[in-house]
Amino acid sequence: xxxxxxxxxxxxxxxxxxxxxxxxxxxxxxxxxxxxxxxxxxxxxxxxxxxxxxxxxxxxxxxxxxxxxxxxxxxxxxxxxxxxxxxxxxxxxxxxxxxxxxxxxxxxxxxxxxxxxxxxxxxxxxxxxxxxxxxxxxxxxxxxxxxxxxx
Length: 151
Description:
Layout: H1 4-9, H2 20-31, H3 43-50, H4 66-76, H5 82-101, H6 111-128, H7 135-150
Helix pairs in contact: 2-3, 4-5, 4-7, 5-6, 6-7
């Protein structure tokens, strides 16, 4: 009988690595009871594995823009300018709705592209309304720009 230590050092032993996006795709198909072409037990698994996605453990822009925009919306309050704050809140809710609609295997890849014009228009509004008269407003504007750059 082999010991656990021998299994750990065996270079030919199969070590499963969970693929987060594939798992999410499979669970979405299972939850929505997607009909497969084949009556096979693993047909839905084959469908999930045939989807195009990035399996590498990197970010690769797969996160929703709302992740940064939530903080951006909070940072706009430092500007003290309602012409920036109100559109930020509107954009936040628009991005939230878009993220809810795009939360599907066939659509999640397009959320960032679809929301880009809205996010760029908001950033243009911030640059148009920038105020250098108040230190806190400048800090708020710099935070908005930095968070937009991170996004």
